[in-house]
Task: structure prediction
Amino acid sequence: MANNKSAIKRIQIAERNRLRNKAYKSAVRTLIKKYYSAVKNYSGEPTPEKMAEIQQMMSAAYSKIDKAVKRNVLHRNNGARKKASLAKAFKELTANAS
Result:
């Protein structure tokens, strides 16, 4: 257990940051899963409405990933890798649709 005031404060700050990081990572994972499910739905039955939904999901996921990187929750290379995998799935989808 902490013996002085500064150590107690560092424990409190670490816990606060852990909860913030957990929330960001969870939100990123959720948005990525929603994006992939939207891609799967579109590949089964392509419609313009589903394509618009994919675009919206991709935008939301990109935004959350960028915010997590900006706040040092994710490393910038990790964020770039996640965005690249989303872009790759979209590119494969549009290549198959054409």
Remarks:
- The chain is about 85% helix and 0% strand.
- The radius of gyration is 18 Å.
